[in-house]
Write a structure and sequence with these properties.
heterodimer, A: seven-stranded mixed beta sheet, seven-stranded mixed beta sheet, 14 helices, 19 strands, 33% helix, 23% strand
Chain lengths: 465, 83
């Protein structure tokens, strides 16, 4: 009998597991896949290391900073700053036709850029900054939390193009809702991206995942890969344990699930149907191009470029094709300020992410799927090189993942990267001893997911043992 | 445990929760919150560490007693004197 069974060995499940194991609970993490990380993972292919998920860690903080989510998670998980050793971004850009705004980990650069490109809007931007909710208001009860971000922004910013440009990175990095964003979520992402900024460990997401697993196992936690949960078994209105794909039953006093809200409901054997219309719809395709040179050799020093090819930012599931490459994110892991003793990454890398339709990708036959991956790679890179130097003649290797891949690794309905639009911020479910963490609880991104695991473990699984 | 031993145990817990904090200059009569960057998550950790290390149970309604070092030691003394 476990004190807590955790479903899913992604960032949130691993973080929750560490908290519980640290305080002497018997805890087991069950992961359907053969590897950890969920959406954020890594692999080796053709002698090269690849990262999936992580472009940048948001919420950058320097050693010694005591405020903010990154400092909080390091303390709560008893890590040292060196365990995550983040290199700062060189700088990122938001590029729309005819106008570009640069930003880095000091919000003054963004202010200055806005002052230059939108001189009449700087006071409005400052007023918006003053209105931002604090992290302590993020329990979802604040009256502004569920307001439309577009509406709140338009109270202080009168230039529609600036609203679109400011929303673009924030939606890309953490908005499960189509077209608009909850103001609470907007504030979380605004702080994470513009006020705190981006960083990356030299060796990428594997450093973070390996540290989490090492710590969890070191505390006596059990991690079982290839152990998919097919059912949460209930008795008299409580969960009593889980049934694995192979029929094995495991008993637990409580269950913390990172499978997603609907996905968890569907597992419960007292639930006959779930409302699939509430599932998230936004999924991505991402291509990774390995270059025979560093991106900076081609004159490209941007860490991340968020682009959109018209004055209106389109944030919705593609309506007429496999992908929508009108907007996208270009990321180069080479373009961080790594320590001199770390040197530079062995290969030049350009990653491009665009919106994709999960259902269309899943309807393809195997051969159609392979052909579509090549065609969509070409389309995404052709779209991106309008906003960066053309790197296509320097490509020596590529890989592509699609919504189908995301679905396989995360088990989220529709391969929805940021889960369902309506978050369950208090993490409760219809069962008194089943709780949610991860994407559908509310915080997204790597730091957000880890904070979600910590806070749900603290709130529901630690105190009342 | 004597009050002095309880105090040093709390210092040890604080150092574990927040290793970068300078605890030598801690004023025992001032609130932790005004001297250290502790939030509600950190206070929960003090409670949880005491339970983990010494099996001391602190009910939620008593959390207010953990405001300063002085009040914490006073509150814990009867609970920990036989440890």
């Amino acid at each position: 009998m476990y004190d807590t069974i955790i479903i899913g060995a992604g960032m949130s499940g691993l973080a929750a597991g560490i908290r519980l194991a640290h305080f002497d609970q018997r805890v087991c993490i069950l992961e359907r896949h053969y590897t950890i990380g969920g959406l954020n993972s890594f692999y080796r292919m053709g002698g090269r290391d690849y990262d999936v998920g992580l472009h940048a860690m948001t919420n950058f903080a320097r050693k010694g900073d005591k405020r903010g989510p990154l400092a909080k998670l390091i303390r709560q998980l008893r890590f040292r700053w060196e365990d995550f050793k983040l290199a700062e971004q060189i700088g990122s850009s938001i590029r729309f036709p005819g106008v570009s705004l640069d930003f880095n980990n000091d919000v003054d650069l963004l202010r200055q850029e806005i002052r230059e490109s939108f001189p009449s809007q700087i006071d409005g931007f400052d007023a918006l900054c003053d209105k931002l909710l604090d992290y302590t208001d993020m329990d979802g009860d604040h009256p502004l939390f569920m307001r439309s971000a577009r509406e709140v922004m338009s109270q202080t910013i009168t230039e529609p193009l600036l609203i679109e440009m400011l929303l673009c990175p924030l939606m890309w990095y953490g908005n499960a809702r189509e077209n608009d964003m909850d103001f609470g979520q907007f504030c979380i992402m605004f702080r994470a991206c513009y006020l705190e900024g981006f960083g990356r460990p030299f060796k990428g997401v594997r450093v973070i995942l390996k540290n989490l697993v090492k710590k969890f196992r070191g505390l006596g936690g059990e991690l079982k890969l290839r152990h998919g949960v097919s059912k949460i078994h209930t008795d008299e209105g409580r969960a009593v344990g889980v049934v694995l794909d192979d029929g094995t039953e495991i008993e637990g006093r409580r269950i913390l699930s990172s499978a997603g809200n609907l996905e968890t409901m569907r597992l419960c054997d007292d639930v006959s149907r779930v409302d699939v219309a509430r599932a998230g719809k936004l999924s991505f395709i991402e291509s990774i191009s390995i270059l025979d040179c560093q991106p900076q050799d081609l004159g490209f020093d941007r860490t991340i470029v968020f682009y959109n090819d018209s004055p209106t930012f389109h944030w919705a599931k593609p309506t007429d094709g496999l992908c929508d490459a009108r907007t996208g994110v270009i990321c180069s892991p080479n373009n961080y300020i790594y320590d001199s003793d770390e040197g530079r990454l062995p290969d030049g890398v350009v990653r491009i992410t665009t919106l994709a339709d999960h259902d269309r990708w899943c309807q393809l036959s195997d051969s159609q799927y392979r052909i579509a991956k090549v065609a969509q790679y070409d389309e995404a890179t052709a779209s991106a090189v309008r906003f960066m130097p053309d790197f296509r003649s320097r490509v020596i290797d590529t890989d592509v993942f699609t919504p189908k891949t995301i679905r396989r690794f995360t088990w989220h309905d529709n391969g929805a990267v940021y889960g369902a639009p309506d978050k369950q911020i208090d993490g409760t479910t219809h069962l008194p001893n089943v709780f949610l963490c991860g994407t559908d609880q509310g915080f997204v991104g790597i730091v957000g997911a880890i904070v979600s695991g910590i806070s749900m473990a603290n709130r529901h699984c630690l105190v009342d043992v | 445990m004597t009050p002095a031993e309880i105090r040093s145990e709390i210092i040890d817990i604080l150092d574990d929760i927040s290793p970068d904090e300078d605890l030598d200059s801690l004023d025992d009569d001032k609130a932790f919150r005004d001297q250290l960057e502790l939030d509600s998550m950190d206070f929960l950790d003090i409670v949880m560490e005491l339970r983990k290390r010494h099996r001391v149970q602190i009910p939620e309604e008593d959390y207010g007693n953990l405001a300063s070092m002085h009040s914490t030691v006073t509150y814990l003394e009867p609970k920990m004197k036989d440890l």
